[in-house]
Amino acid sequence: MRVLFHTCCGPCTLYPLRTLRAAGHEVTGFFYNHNIHPYQEYTRRLTALKEMAERETMPVIIRDSYDLESFLANVALQPDKRCSYCYASRLRATAIVASEQGFSAFSASLLYSRYQKHTEIRKLGEEIGREYGVEFLYQDFRAGWQEGIKLSKELGLYRQQYCGCIYSEKERYHPQEKTA
Question: Which stretches within 23-144 are classed as H helix?
Fold first, then answer.
């Protein structure tokens, strides 16, 4: 199957890429991440993805539009719902490209992270896939979390310390107090 694989960065793509290839799939990466803040973080992740893609011989389609304003406009009034918007917007962009370019399916590196909401991602991916006439390939890649970290360190790839958005960066440096 020809799979368009949305990727947020190189490290989160390594394990899923190798897993999908081992299953016989032809994988092309797709980079579109209007949520990543600040811009320096965005460029670090894009650079790491390009390095990984070159080493792994993975073709990549890059939608290099740093549209932070659009992301913020859609989440600022309800930051607690930001992940839903973020998932849907990036999955939708991937499905559109997959449909336009004749891919059999699309998927995402979001499914590698143990911090993401897999049930919601799967539901959104399947709905968006039906909308654009392209299959959403769900696979839980979390079992390879440690292996992916090891591989990315071996390759010397830049590894980010937070999800990417300004809110997750805030949570990293200014965690909320737990209330009883």
Answer: 39-56, 68-75, 82-100, 118-132
Q: Using CA atoms, how far apart are residues 129 and 105, in angstroms rounded to an integer? A: 8
* Residue ranges of domains in the chain, CATH in brackets: 2-173 (3.40.50.620)
Query: Angle of helix 82-100 relative to helix 68-75, nearest 10 degrees?
Result: 130
Whole-number Cα distances in Å, 16 to 100, 138, 169: 23, 11, 25
In tens, the pLDDT along 109-123 reads 999 998 899 999 999
**Per-residue pLDDT tens digits for 22-57:** 999 999 999 999 888 889 989 999 999 999 999 999
Quick check: 81 and 75 in contact, CB under 8 A? yes
What is the Cα 176 distance to its own chain's centre?
25
| Distance between CA atoms of residues 19 and 13, nearest Å | 10
Question: Whole-prediction pTM value?
Answer: 0.90
CA end-to-end span of the chain: 49
What CA–CA distance (Å, rounded) separates 6 from 93? 9
